[in-house]
Amino acid sequence: MSSNFAPDSLPVVVVGAGLAGLVVALQLAEQRPVVVLAKRELAEGATAWAQGGIVGVLGSDDSVDSHVRDTQDAGAGLVDENTARFIAEHSAAAIEWLVDAGVPFSPDPAGPLGLHLTREGGHAVRRIAHAADATGKAIHDALLERAMAHPNIQLRERWMAVDLITSRHLRRDEPQRCYGLYALDMDSRHVETLPASAVVLATGGVGKVYRYTSNPDTSTGDGIAMAWRAGCRVANMEFIQFHPTCLYHAQERSFLITEAMRGEGAYLTLPDGTRFMAAHDERGELAPRDIVARAIDFEMKKHGLDHVWLDARHLGEAFLKEHFPNIHARCLSLGIDIARAPIPVVPAAHYTCGGVVTDLDGRSDLPGLYAVGETTYTGLHGANRLASNSLLECVVLGRTCAHNILQSAPAGTRACPAWDESKVEDADEQVVIAHNWDELRLLMWNYVGIVRTTRRLERALHRIKLLRDEIDDYYANFRVTRDLLELRNLVVCAELIVRSALRRHESRGLHFSRDFPHTLPVSFPTVLTRPARSEKR
């Protein structure tokens, strides 16, 4: 790719090959060339791990108002109503678009659009379209197949974005704008300059900043960190959703037990079989995720447990095999027959409710830079995400983002400077990266987890600053690798999480502080603005 192309022939570069990135790419490809960067293999990423489903206001017993209310209730007073309403109003069209794209949702001849709808925690009615218990994979496979066949879409595996190219790099006296990015080809180990008519960040969340997470290894906050370094605002990073029921097993630390299982009647118990959720919330197992996660955390600490149990035996073997075939098979391979024994579960970092501030067209503060999906803060999730709203947000706003890019005039061509490696060398000790990675994730788990205190947060921030300085020094002196880039991005996101948490002097949604246990009558999003500073390599 060369910076000598005419402006209208420069591709849109989409960073991330999950649902958000593929929706944007497919919508753009009829009129624009698109390059999609996948940090690992194309099939990897958080979308393929999503089990539950995608919200659609489809049934006669449902309404946009009902979906908005449920979203607001889960979001604990910080949901932007206009955003929630816009996405709810476009949910049916999003489902229809996916059906037309060949997604094999579980059928029900009597259901709306011929689809079987399930219910999850926080939802008033059944409104979750799903493909058994592997909805994300079914959606991702269908869209990836279309993208691979499209002549205007170039898919690049094992390419990782390093940083955005802005007006600062061009040394131009003009308002800041994004002109492309630097990206590491992990096979050749070279950093390439990729000019673009627009850049779309669809890199997912920051789950890997925690020791225990349901997220894949790709979830290292790359888009959030890059946008922050480029001067974009970031909001609500204190709200990290911990999924209540991640499988607790020595051989499988990231396997999620979908919320839909509780929606179908599975319940949580202590080792002696005693149910405990009713003591924490009148909705029991169908309470929003933050409440269920805190309840499990409370019971584990109270009784000195490593995990609790999720009991689905009463649902019957035939039902479990039909509705949760992947969970049944995976657990069985690990020696757990969920039809005859309860499942050991523990909370794990699951979803990032904050991120890069964007509007409903995916536009960030930096012209030419867009973001979609878990990378963003749009106001939809507030202080806690309602189950299965995430996939819906990717589809609805992925389509509006593409539409805005198509309606916007591309920036004039600029000669983007090449990546400069003249003053660096190959790293002599990779153990430094491994050690800092482990230390960062452990301190985030211990100090910035489900329950927080000001003292813990201050201690975490102090150590994160020291780690950041060590990592920045390493980055300045050695050639980049994927591990180094991911660690660099994670430490940025860790600091954003802690700084946001220290600003919130209350407990709300996913942020619970022992020092500020009460919820304020009125609250606002936590918006961080980066001080202006010169950019390094």
Task: List strands and helices in order, with pairings.
Layout lengths: L11 E4 L3 H10 L5 E5 L15 E2 L8 H11 L6 H9 L1 H10 L16 E2 L9 E2 L5 H15 L3 E5 L1 E8 H4 L7 E8 L4 E6 L2 E4 L20 H8 L4 E2 L4 E8 L11 H5 L3 E3 L19 H15 L4 E4 L5 H7 L1 H9 L9 E10 L2 E3 L11 E3 L4 E2 L11 H19 L23 H17 L3 E2 L1 H24 L4 H22 L8 E2 L13 E2 L9
Q: What are the low-pLDDT stretches, counting only 5+ consecutive residues below 50?
A: 1-7
Oligomeric state of the chains?
A: single chain
Number of helices: 15
Rg from Cα: 22 Å
Strands, count: 21
Q: Major sheet: size, sense and barrel closure?
A: 5 strands, parallel
The share of residues in helices is 25-40%
3D shape: globular
Strand order of the largest sheet: 6-2-1-10-17
Q: How much beta, percentage-wise? A: 15-25%
> How confident overall, as mean pLDDT?
91
Structural class: alpha/beta
Distance between the termini: 21 Å
Describe what you observe in this structure:
The protein has 537 residues and is α/β, with parallel strands linked by helices. 34% of the residues lie in helices and 16% in strands. The protein has helices at residues 19-28, 64-74, 81-89, 91-100, 135-149, 167-170, 222-229, 259-263, 289-303, 317-323, 325-333, 389-407, 431-447, 454-477, 482-503, and strands spanning 12-15, 34-38, 54-55, 117-118, 128-129, 153-157, 159-166, 178-185, 190-195, 198-201, 234-235, 240-247, 267-269, 308-311, 343-352, 355-357, 369-371, 376-377, 451-452, 512-513, 527-528. It has a five-stranded parallel beta sheet, sandwiched between helices. The protein has a four-stranded mixed beta sheet with strand order 18-16-11-21, with helices on one face. It has a four-stranded antiparallel beta sheet with strand order 12-15-14-13, with helices on one face. Strand 8 (178-185) and strand 9 form a beta hairpin. Helix 7 (222-229) packs across helix 15 (482-503), helix 10 (317-323) crosses helix 11 (325-333) and helix 13 (431-447) packs antiparallel against helix 14 (454-477). The radius of gyration is 22 Å and the shape is globular. It starts with 11 loop residues before the first strand and ends in a 9-residue tail after the last strand.
